[in-house]
Specification:
The complex is a heterotrimer of chains A (320), B (428) and C (195). Chain A has 320 residues and is α/β, with parallel strands linked by helices. Chain A has 12 helices and 9 strands. In chain A, the strands form 2 sheets. A 5-stranded parallel beta sheet of chain A has the order 7-6-5-8-9. Chain C is α/β, with parallel strands linked by helices. The chains are: A alpha/beta (320), B alpha/beta (428), C alpha/beta (195).
Chain lengths: 320, 428, 195
């Protein structure tokens, strides 16, 4: 795994390796010394063309816990906001000796382009690209689901909301289906992409029916700009038909959990009492995000070494 | 200068010697029977076609001379076998006045590699609000007959109706870029299962088809003719076929890239494959080939759209729409149409020279290969194969989607009214 | 993303040629017994001792030693496992590998006599990594080292307190340890090179 661009690139074994690694790394959080020396001397650059404090901080914490040097470029206050191109920014980072670039970009495919254009030689981790994917979010969601449900095989996960514009939904559908879960998307038809019938999941317009006996429900944020673009008649109607409230949460299976990638519109897609209720794992998701991103950085940077070193040291191959 | 083409095969048929003199075909006779000329070209095995005519070329001058100039663009055209191109109006400034179209036309004459026929903008500044001075452009030295806001659809039905009516006065034609703007806001690629997966905003087929349907009905209603630019979907072929069956005066073009490439290439997120209208599905590709074969689609037009390196060497969303086409068009048509038996060489002459010339009302282009006719001709080696090297194209830009691809057939020589513009595959 | 399993001294017996068997199952059992006795002797009855097996094969060895110590002395010695992957200095060279659990006994490590247990002592880099890992986890009173095989070629100033068997090797050779718990049988093989 040289790069992490899309969850659809991950095999089941690769996905499980990331999740298992994250589980071990998560235990570091419980120790007095919350730091590992693994990536000492490596440079991880967070390149955020789009504002996302949560994801940026999570990646920063992950890299620092692995002792990497972290450089952060954010849209505000750098040349990124002055119209410097993705390519020129990438070349700058390469010149600074970045070993990995964590990129958040408003254009779908920008991380893919960065990884395949030949502009840079470092590893690329997609931290959310346009309306395409957000693989580490899906991995932390899967991680959280595993913590609560143990096995994902055969589990029923319902994802509700603006699937059309959601990179979280795309990454989750691919990853959760790879891990054997049965995913159902629920949204008004206007917020489902053309061709969603070809995705490895079921689709429903009826939230109550989908929630009945489900093991988990993930509520997607409804962006403000969608509310004014005729995707649905009113926030009130959306909330009534597709919002998660206490009555609906009660339809879930025993032990089922409620996820939200944040930030939430309380009262819109999720009611406050459900967001703060016993089934909600929304705060855990944030904690797990750091562990998952540590695992990703470790595996991606290690794989990079593996590519270049090959049969580095046969003698050292024997346990020392 | 007298030029003798030895043993050329007009339309791929029986070999003859063809003498060119004073701008016309002076004589045609059995091989070995005509006296040598000032220039003898051994055309044994080569196919002789009327010089190709492109209805849809972006030469970028004035305004974006960093991407293409009339000089470089027409060199590319000649190398691609073209003897006439229609230069689209979306320059900076826009070709919406007699002054700009005359300037483009003159530069074309000065360059001398092929005829340059400026396309006039339909509306002032391509803004879709007020008709440009279509009559002044028609009456100018450039004698404009094709009008288009290409790049932007004339979406206002009233403006479109007026334009269709107005150009009847000088036998003009409106070439419509069929794209319903509201259905394609922010569109990045063909809308379908793949756009959903890639997270790229979709450009649905219906946005093209709805405009074509509207415009053929408008053309019928006002008794004018309409030309459809770069038709790209199976549904569009059906609509044009239906309109023609009803006797509506509609013509249509397809680009080489829509004959051969599919939307899958968007999966690379490499903007070299980003074009408007977008690459479509395999079903659409087969339908446009079929439409071109049966004559529903009248012409192959390149939509040659040069872009500066930095406008393509970026992320997909930031990339400019468009790809080069002049130097690869004939090869792509041979690959997709001739090699598969969908068109013979007479068919190629019809779709790439004769019909486009008629649509553009060019009197001395797209003429039969016969004594007394203008000697604007192209010699093609049908058996050659070549690999596209962007660095060796004559265009100032490099945004060909065919880099590294092997294509059949090669232009050996091009003649513009008896004068060689290309010989042995290089600018003469 | 593949683990560099080729770099591990694992694999079914015979997968890389049998090599010479330098210890068989009874040998290993005797060696484990001797180390157990030595630990008891040196730590005066094992009070405060924690056995910490280094993943992967140090862990079953630590369990075996704990069991023997219990048989001999009747004392229950806490056993933990330590994965040192994240402390290795050769990730650049070797690439990532799946992590094994690090599990500490409830007693923790603070003020304990920690005996690190591993199968082979070679360059000393694994032990160096283990010492770093331990210092991030707690503060033992002392740390000692027990190994099944010491094959020499140290690259760091590290020595073992308890050695099952010293086996002189050339650096072209490999020592491969197989244990019932991980490989289905007990044996130590010396393979490759001219011995």
């Amino acid at each position: 795994m040289r790069h992490l661009l899309s969850t659809s690139d991950l095999t089941r074994d690769e996905a499980l390796l990331i999740l298992d690694t994250a589980a071990e790394l998560g235990r570091v959080t419980d120790r007095a010394v919350k730091k590992l020396p693994t990536l000492r001397g490596r440079t991880v650059v967070n390149l955020f063309f789009e504002d996302s404090t949560r994801t940026r901080i999570s990646f920063e914490a992950a890299a620092k816990r692995l002792s990497a040097d972290v450089i952060t470029f954010s849209a505000k206050g750098s040349s990124v906001s002055k119209g410097e191109s993705l390519k020129d920014t990438a070349l700058t980072l390469e010149a600074m000796g970045a070993d990995a670039v964590v990129v958040r970009h408003h254009a779908s495919g920008a991380p893919y382009r960065l990884a395949h254009s030949g502009w840079v030689g470092c590893s690329v981790v997609n931290a959310g690209d346009g309306t395409h994917e957000h693989p580490t979010q899906a991995l932390l969601d899967a991680f959280t689901l595993r913590e609560h449900l143990r096995e994902l095989e055969g589990r029923r996960v319902v994802i509700v909301g603006d699937v059309l514009h959601s990179r979280v939904a795309r990454s989750n559908v691919a990853l959760l289906s790879t891990l054997g879960a049965q995913v159902t998307l629920v949204a008004p038809p206007t917020l489902l992409p053309v061709g969603v019938d070809t995705w490895p999941c079921a689709v429903s317009y009826d939230l109550d029916a989908a929630l009945e006996g489900a093991d988990a429900v993930m509520m997607l944020r409804v962006q403000n700009e969608r509310m004014n673009a005729a995707y649905f008649p009113s926030t009130h109607e959306y909330s009534r038909r597709y919002g998660l409230d206490t009555r609906r949460a009660a339809l879930l299976a025993d032990g089922a959990i409620v996820l939200h990638p944040g930030p939430m519109n309380r009262g819109m897609e999720i009611s406050a009492d459900v967001a703060d209720g016993p089934r909600s794992v929304i705060v855990e998701q944030v904690t797990n995000g750091v562990s998952v991103r540590m695992a990703v950085l470790y595996l991606v940077l290690g794989a990079r070494a593996e590519d270049s070193a090959g049969e580095a040291s046969a003698a050292e191959a024997v346990s020392a | 200068m007298r030029v003798l083409l030895r043993s050329a095969r007009p339309y791929g048929e029986e070999p003859v010697d063809v003498a060119l003199e004073n701008g016309v075909i002076a004589a045609m006779a059995a091989p070995g029977t005509l006296p040598a000329g000032d220039l003898d070209v051994d055309a044994t095995g080569l196919v002789l076609l009327p010089g190709l005519v492109d209805l849809h070329t972006h030469l970028r001058e004035p305004g974006r001379e960093d991407a293409e100039t009339i000089e470089t663009g027409t060199r590319a055209a000649a190398l691609g076998g073209f003897t006439a191109v229609h230069a689209m109006a979306n320059t900076q400034p826009v070709a919406d006045t007699a002054g700009v179209v005359e300037m483009v036309w003159r530069r074309g004459v000065e360059a001398g590699h092929c005829d340059v026929h400026p396309v006039g903008a339909v509306t002032v500044g391509l803004a879709g609000e007020h008709l440009a001075e279509l009559g002044a452009m028609a009456d100018s030295a450039a004698r404009v007959r094709v009008f288009s806001d290409d790049g932007i659809c004339v979406s206002d039905p009233v403006i479109m109706r007026r334009a269709l009516e107005y150009v009847k006065a000088f036998d003009g034609v409106i070439a419509q870029h069929a794209q319903e703007p509201r259905l394609t806001q922010g569109a990045q690629m063909n809308e379908g299962a793949l756009s959903g997966v890639l997270g790229l905003a979709g450009w649905p087929a219906v946005a093209e088809e709805a405009i074509i349907a509207r415009d053929v009905l408008l053309a019928a209603h006002v008794g004018s003719r309409v030309h459809i630019c770069h038709l790209s979907t199976a549904g569009s072929v059906d609509i044009v076929r239906y309109a023609k069956s009803r006797g509506i005066d509609v013509t249509a073009e397809v680009t080489p890239h829509h004959l051969i490439l599919t939307e899958d290439l968007a999966g690379t997120y490499d903007p070299v494959y980003k074009v408007n209208p977008p690459l479509r599905t395999e079903t659409d590709v087969m339908a446009v080939r079929e439409g071109l074969a049966d004559g529903t689609i009248d012409a192959v037009a390149t939509d040659h759209a040069p872009h500066a390196h930095e406008d393509k060497d970026c992320e997909w969303a930031a990339g400019a729409f468009g790809m080069l086409g002049l130097e690869t068009a004939l090869s792509v048509v041979v690959d997709t149409m001739v090699s598969h038996g969908r068109l013979d060489w007479r068919g190629v002459a019809d779709r790439m020279s004769e019909r486009p010339a008629r649509i553009g009302r060019l009197a001395d282009q797209g003429r039969p290969i016969a004594v007394g006719e203008p000697a604007s001709l192209v010699l093609v080696d049908p058996g050659a194969s070549w690999t596209v090297d962007p660095g060796r194209l004559a265009s100032r830009s490099r945004n060909t989607p065919f880099a590294g691809r092997a294509l059949p057939a090669r232009v050996v020589a091009t003649f513009l009214r008896g004068r060689p513009t290309v010989l042995d595959g290089v600018i003469a | 993303m593949t683990s560099s399993s080729a770099a591990e001294p694992t694999g079914p017996p015979g997968s890389r040629g049998l090599g010479a068997r330098v210890l068989d199952a009874p040998d290993i059992s005797r060696v484990v017994g001797r180390i157990s006795h030595e630990i008891l002797e040196r730590t005066r009855g094992s009070a405060d001792v924690v056995l910490l097996g280094i993943q992967t094969r140090g862990v079953p060895l630590a369990r075996r030693i704990a069991a023997r110590m219990a048989e001999i002395e009747g004392a229950s010695v806490p056993v933990g496992s330590l994965d040192i992957t994240m402390y290795r200095d050769d990730i650049r060279l070797r690439g990532p590998r799946p992590l094994e659990p690090t599990e500490l006994p409830d007693e923790g490590l603070d003020d304990r006599i920690v005996v690190l247990v591993d199968d082979v002592l070679y360059s000393g880099r694994t032990v160096r990594a283990a010492l770093d890992a331990i210092s991030d986890i707690g503060r033992p009173r002392t740390v000692q080292l027990a190994v099944l095989v010491d094959r020499g070629h140290r690259e760091l100033p590290i020595r073992a307190d308890y050695v099952g068997k010293n086996i002189p090797t050339s650096s072209a050779q490999s020592i491969r340890v197989h244990l019932v718990e991980t490989d289905g049988l007990d044996e130590v093989l010396l393979t490759g090179g001219a011995s």
